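Many introductory courses stop at the sequence. We go one step further.
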Amino acid sequence: MSEIKKLAGQTAYYGISSILGRLLNFLLLPLWTSQFPPDEYGAVTHLYSFVALLNIVYTYGLETGYFRFSTKNKSTDAYHQTGTSILITSTLFSGLIILMANNIANFLQEGIKAEYVVYLAIILFIDGIVSIPFAKLRLDQRPVKFVIVRSAVIIATIVLNLLFLVVFPAISEGRWLPGLEGIVSRVYDPEIGIGYIFLANMIANILYLPLLVKEFMAMKLKFDLKALKPILAYSIPIFLMGLAGSINDRGYGIVMPFLYPETDGLSGTGALGTFDGAFKLSMIMALGVQAFRYAGEPFFFSHAENKAAPALFARIMHYFVIFSLVVMVGVAMNIELIADIFLQRPAYKTALYVLPILLLAKLLYGVYINFSVWFKIKDKTLFGTYFAWIGATITLVGNFILIPIIEFWGPALTAFIVYLTMCILCYSKGRKYFKVPYNFKPLFSYLVLALLFIYGGNQLHFDNNWLEYGISFAGSGVFVFIMYWLEGRNVKYKAIS
């Protein structure tokens, strides 16, 4: 099997869990937006933005450190050292958050209760301690178990959300299964409201522990600071890079409630809930990026010393961009139909006009993932930290300046500028250490064509919604055909030895 085919196959496997994980947001988005107004849903987004940041803190780059030192030293010691280290620190971090739950809740926006903070502390603890077992599955090239475990927890999360937000309320109000109100009242309290979103997440996450018991049993509790120091030295720049990356991705969710001008009765938290609806839909673009990153990171490491690697990496990036452009056009041209399905209240659709720029920002992030291979395989991860923190600085400054002035355009334009800047910096510096023969000319032409399709599609409006949906869908289909005619017919999988 050729190397590109092998990577594509693994990407497809990891893509299943990645897509299911993101699909969780899409499947639950109609439920959440129908059950809760933007200000309540905005509170959920606000808290989960902090969770995204803290997930990076809990693992502090040790997943990538484990990859590097397991393949470099050909031993299992890195598994024991990194797993034990994260277990210790996750216990300390979550314990501290639980002890300070009341203070944290008081600091955050109105509507956030201390018990929500406790639920999230437990979620973060579990996410932390399972990170190295999941990394082991990836390194051992066991994508099937990876997918099964992730999928089981995702399905459990969906089922619990439906129980807490649909089934139990209907039973307690006597609309479903009369006579069971008393039984349901023992496990369901309508006053908890959005708290059930966090509670469902916590209960589902507990399933990771029995499902990964074999990986946990293979882990020995070993903490040798001398052995861990080189892993930490390699991982800390990755951690700082990840922390900055989380700010770039979710920083708007942390700052928007404090910065958005309260106009037309829309609070900062309500504005966050509204914007997050558009942001969630842009995450369709991130599905392929995340799946690619899961499969690509160990793949790039394993082929780093091959003489044909630069040409291979260039071909991978070429087809990645083409695939991403197809996704971008498909989403942007059919956004009205997608929004009608997933955003149940009209208030959530008022920020959809920024979606194309958000999709383009996600595409640029995927390009950056491709460019970033050089500093990982050349042990120059400090450069990645520089690039990420330059991006994080732009994110914070851009949001602080632009949100009060141009509202929803602020975080969208900021994201585009951030990833464009990071791409330029990473590519320019990488040519000195690991030159990859990227061919940008056709990709730029395809990007222009994609933007013309999106712009042209947005100019078409009809009184009949279904006619508009049909024409938009057909237009995106034409773009897919053009891409296949230009590139798909000529795809050749060339193995490298």
